Every structure is written in C-alpha cells, then in structure tokens.
Sequence to fold (300 residues):
Amino acid sequence: MKDTFKSGFAALIGRPNVGKSTLMNRLIGQKIAITSSKPQTTRNRIQTVYTDSEGQIIFLDTPGIHKAKNKLGEYMVNVAQNTLRDVDVILWLVEASDYIGASDRHIAEILSKVRTPVILVINKIDKVKKEEILKFIDAYKDLCDFAEIIPLSALKGENTEKLIPEIFKYLDFGPMYYDEDTVTDQPERQITAEIIREKALRNLNDEIPHGIAVSIESMSKRKGKKIMDIDAVVICERESHKRIIIGNRGGMLKTIGSDARKDIEAMLGMQVNLKIWVKVKKDWRDSDFMLNNFGYNKLD
Fold:
C-alpha cells in the first residue's frame, strides 16, 4: 500500500474567526471542531482524519494566532506556532479582502521562516462579488512563496472539493495512521465539553465567553440502556458572570443545556441526561494549575 497510498499532516492556521474549524468540519464531513462568530473559539489543537482511496490526511485545527493577553492566550499562540513544525503542508486561511491587517502580516512573517509548503486559502468568497476574487489573490500573492492559492467558501462548500487533491500533491507515500473509519482522535468527553462551551459562546454576550471553561465531572452510560448521564461544570471568573450564565430563573443555562444536548445526542447516538452547574474560579486563565486541569497542557 505504501507505494500507492499517500499520508501526512496538514495544519490549518490563521487569525481568530477566519473559518478554520468550519473548513475542517466541511472537509471531514461532520462536526468535530466547535464554531462560533466569536474569536478564540478553538483553544486546543484538534486532530481530525480524512481518508479516501488516494490516502489519508490528518488535519490539525489550531487556535487563532493573536496577541496574547494572559497565560491562556500565550498557550493558544504557542500551540498554533508549534504545530507548524510537525506537519507536511500548511493551510493558511484568510478572509476574502484586499486589506491585509497587522495580524495577517505577523502570520506571513512566521510562515516566511518555515520550509513547509503553504497553501493560501482565501475563505468566505460567498460574501464578495466573483470579479473581486482576483484582486484579493493579487493582494496576498507576494506575502509568501505560496505553493497554491485556493479561494473557497467553507460555510457554503463552494470550491472546497479542490483542496483535498492539492494537499495530496504535497504528501509522500506512507502508512495509514488511523483506521479508515476514524474521524478524530479527540475523546468523547473532550468533544462533549467543547460542545457545551460552543453553546455558551453562541448564547452569551461578548465579554463573558473568553472567561469560561467547561469541565466534565462525570460521564457514564446507564446499565442496559442507551442513555448517557453527564454532569458538567461551566467555570467563569466572576460572580456577575455566573448570574448571567444562569440567567433569569435559570433560563440561560437551560438554553445552553438544551442546545448542547441535541448535538451531544447526535454525536453519541443515544439519549443524553445532561446536568450543568456554574462555578466561579477567579483569574483561572492566568493559573498554570487551572489551565492544566482544564486540558490546556503546554506542548514541548
């Protein structure tokens, strides 16, 4: 197989909220990484697997590269930058625009120091006129020595089918790292916590989501029944935030729980009994102990 089967690793990088998780979910064909309109949605490096007759691509979805304001932010940026050393090809996502901001110029500077092939992915072309796309390509093309430039819409699926063949061009023949039916290396417990965090991100106002984490206290299947009992805790930094997360007569927490339960049931293929509590842990984003406890482990 190794003479006909290609395999390797592809990193998705870019500034926050540019559509990395949406693109990865699209390429894999199911929801693994959480998405929202708020920056810093992805905090850990998420690994997913695409397999077809030509080969296997292991995608690494990284946190958005940004200017860190606390230890959590530093951790996220380090995860993203360290990933570039471990892959065979880099997908750099930018938005469809001819304006190149400081964040993208900073990423271009990082990429200029790596030897890995870089595919520029101009995302969100569904939001612009078709005749403008060439102008956007022209704006970015000289920032790096790009292997390929592909405009697409991850949300709508427009032109995404061209990306997989281009990635395979830069992979060597090699082994199948995962079984062909594997789509992620993420434990169900971790995906469950991320789904709950996603629903909080989508339902809460802007100032709170950056300061929350989710911990799964217990997750067990009832004996002889297709029911999963899950106890989860949403961690926030202030008592005022706790009141907002719970909401009037518990309304906000019920909405978050109800939205999360639907996605968790779809993932697990069974009924879910989900209970969520809210706890305050002041300044947890600057605590090495807390960050480690919530699964944000520093990479070597």
Q: What stands out?
A: Strands lie at 6-13, 46-51, 55-61, 89-95, 118-123, 148-151, 213-221, 227-236, 271-280.
